[in-house]
Amino acid sequence: MPALATLLWTVVALALVGIYLSWTAGRLDRLHARIDAAKAALDAQLLRRASVAQELATAGVLDPAASIVLYQAAHDARQAEEDHREVAESELSQALRAVFADRAQIDAVREAPGGEESAAELVAAVRRVPMARRFHNDAVRAARALRRHRKVRWLRLAGHAPFPLAFEMDDEPPPALTARADDAA
């Protein structure tokens, strides 16, 4: 009888360990799915920002030098290879800050026909990029923390999923674009 009780407790202990490991692997899988979704959202926001910047650069409302700088940075950001994407997106952020350094450029955009919608679109795109990047990097941070645990490494619970990488870029928006209307008055 004692051998049967020992066997029963061993089976129960192994079942609990198996359930825990299965739960951990599922959690890791959900984190990787969350990273994929956040990466897709980040890509969409970056593409939107570059598209709006290109539209403004070709609309003829900015001075020629600003248009060229903004168009080239937006074009480079849209065409960048994955390895150089962070640098290209940072350069677009710098170009946006340079072009919209003072309030006069954004006011010129707003005064043009259809400019109020264009300005609102640009403001929305510029504000959403840091949020999307933060969501992505938070998901990466959580997955990395779980993947650092010994049980995950030793038992290879991550499978063949690549190690998640954060998206690091300069995403500081131009102050003239993010200033509230009551701040400007």
From TrEMBL:
Gene3D superfamilies: LemA-like domain. This is LemA family protein.
